[in-house]
Description:
By secondary structure, the chain is an alpha/beta fold. The protein has two domains: 14-224 and 411-452, Glycogen Phosphorylase B (Rossmann fold), CATH 3.40.50; 244-409, Rossmann fold, CATH 3.40.50. It has 18 helices and 14 strands. Helix 13 (340-347) links the parallel strand 11 (322-324) and strand 12 (352-355). Helix 2 (36-47) crosses helix 17, helix 2 (36-47) packs antiparallel against helix 18 and helix 3 (87-100) crosses helix 5 (123-138). The chain is elongated and about 75 Å long.
Amino acid sequence: xxxxxxxxxxxxxxxxxxxxxxxxxxxxxxxxxxxxxxxxxxxxxxxxxxxxxxxxxxxxxxxxxxxxxxxxxxxxxxxxxxxxxxxxxxxxxxxxxxxxxxxxxxxxxxxxxxxxxxxxxxxxxxxxxxxxxxxxxxxxxxxxxxxxxxxxxxxxxxxxxxxxxxxxxxxxxxxxxxxxxxxxxxxxxxxxxxxxxxxxxxxxxxxxxxxxxxxxxxxxxxxxxxxxxxxxxxxxxxxxxxxxxxxxxxxxxxxxxxxxxxxxxxxxxxxxxxxxxxxxxxxxxxxxxxxxxxxxxxxxxxxxxxxxxxxxxxxxxxxxxxxxxxxxxxxxxxxxxxxxxxxxxxxxxxxxxxxxxxxxxxxxxxxxxxxxxxxxxxxxxxxxxxxxxxxxxxxxxxxxxxxxxxxxxxxxxxxxxxxxxxxxxxxxxxxxxxxxxxxxxxxxxxxxxxxxxx
Length: 454
């Protein structure tokens, strides 16, 4: 398998052989440009002294990765995700586990098989097979004491079955689409059996408590950003220096609402306002967005860019006077939680305009630290942008309040400390008590990865 030069390889050393107590992080893909918050969480937990082993179901093979990926010390093991390509390995591991522990194997296998038959989908059975592969092939050579998954669908299903097969406890972090587009009854089972659940909005907490209303440890912990890295630059009067720079960042997928934003920018342009807008991302709607820009005659105003790393994004944030993101809820329930790019922009002191869906109002208090408009409303979005262009003093006021909001509630280090406390409560042996010097060394080190190919 091609590692895309993203993870410099390292020979197995004595540290790996000692098999120290470790927390398994089960991820759908790693590393992913759109999931910087997961990389940052792992990195900061390592700085707190936790030993982590990443088990990912695929290598996305993205051409760009964030610099923090190379600072993560955790070894990465890829669990085969393409069943037929790895059928011998997957079935071999499952058969060995069955003969080793037939009684423990049979009950979760039967559940996965029957659910797949009822759903007329192989998904649940596939996740069981992956979990059994993980348990038989990889857990014995590590010293995993706890399982933690990110996203409540596939990765948490693997953790759920791995827990059932081993007796290890598991926890998971739920985010956005994964909460709203899966079948409630199975989701309830995963919620009820988890040691704890973390999610990134109070909106999500309320939804999950409707699914599993009994006493389940569900914690709202915002993703947050590194407020030392994302901070306002030197004050410049961009409002009087020429065309205002508007920025929008996100994957080019329907729930981000980029067609609505582009149509709103056309209305702003028709009113005679001077601006430039950079829309940065990547995804299936890229060609459609470029076509819409041409159809609306915005080629001189709006530029569509491919996805960029955080390091490449920083100059765009630094030059932006406004940030806009027109998030919307899709017919299948897919939606954002609190988009991390909104938090990053507010940390940089950029006044933001977004929509009043999902958890976004937990970040943006309308008229206090940003502006909110109804989803899919081109006119309302255009009017909000025009309002800030006409009222630069109000924009500056929102800018300062936005930074305060992030400092108070969305500081990644403070919030990840809370996740560390939850993990320590269920797996205290996986944390090394670190001196200040050890923590500083961990934070500054550029680590090499141990890669285990499937």
